[in-house]
Amino acid sequence: MDTTLQTPPPSFGEAFRTWAKIGLLSFGGPAGQIAMMHRIVVDEKKWVSEPQFLHALNFCMLLPGPEAQQTAVYIGWLLHRWKGGLAAGLLFILPGLAVILALSTIYVLWREVPVISGVFFGLQAAVLAIVFEAMQRIARRAIKTRFLLGLSAAAFIGLFILQIPFPLVVLGAGLIGWRIGQARPDWIAAQVKHDADVLPSVAPSWQRNIGILALFALLWAGPVLYSFTAFGPDHVFSQIGIFFSKMAVVTFGGAYAVLAYVGQQAVEIYGWLGPDEMLHGLGLAETTPGPLILVLTFVGYIAGFRFGGLDPLLGGMLGGLLATWVTFVPCFLWIFLCAPYVERIRHVQAFSHALAAITAAVVGVILNLAVWFSLHTLFRDMQQISFAGLSWDLPVLASLDPWMAALSAAALIAVFRFHLGLGWLLGGAAIAGVGLRLLS
Question: Full-prediction pTM beyond 0.85?
């Protein structure tokens, strides 16, 4: 397969419009978002090659924070450097942020809006199809040998069955790929592809690094320091700033890997919201565009709404925006700081072997996300099963939602049999969901 770019780099205006489209349509959590981004920037636009996209994804998998959004920032940086990375990253976030803030307001005021509930119901079915298409697309291109297939299966088993921490799975795959690449390179079949660079490389330097660190440290810490001085260290805004800043540093594995910890802290330690409300927030984030980690915006909104000491709606908005700010500013820092170094080692053979193994593991990661999302979409109730010191949330079979199952099956057929476009899929599913909600 030819891995070189087949079209010239786009203008910034064209890229801006495309990133806006991706931001508006990026439903489905990380798996669905990665799938759609891959379809548009690799398959349709051909702005980056397959190795460049997988390289970007693998790199972002190793960073704390939402990997799909950081992949967008990385590709934007490849195309147009600083302004490209900022545009891609912000447009990936802003539509979902606007939606989650609006839905949080509706949630605290009314809770039940049948038409909106129906739209989300339909979109969940479409997202299932998008997620599984993501797995198929990336697996078809990434898994070239039986060894890589086994590594992908091992990653899924490690995550879903053995509950091995995500960073260990990814790092372990990289080490295995590096060692196997030395002894049996034919098992990996990864060769360095000297595909055309989108732009001339950026030379990293200490001056550049210090400047980036100083700028983003100021942007990151500024609102938190203001909260401390204006409201005091014990105020909910100060707590939001500190808590979600810590999350931005330790959230390896994306949203799914950190939701349990965030839920526990927000519910049991801080008492900002109840456990059922945390699940409601996750449901809202699952069915809005943008990173799933925007569920933290919902948590910040509820905390500010209830404990901000201001007008409740104003407090909610400020709490949600603060949580979002301290969560996503570091994402831009990691990419802008590290991208030039990672681009320089992309053509090193040993690194190519390690990344090929990580890519295979990523297929298992996406399968894990797809299964997780499917279970929570198709079944209304889950039960915890424990064995040998491990515990899993498994579905209560009697709680299967027949309408969701039927709508999901229709979406899968539309994607895999009729290759329905993304816009038609999402629009049709949303209309069907509203119809089912109004009739039921």
Answer: no
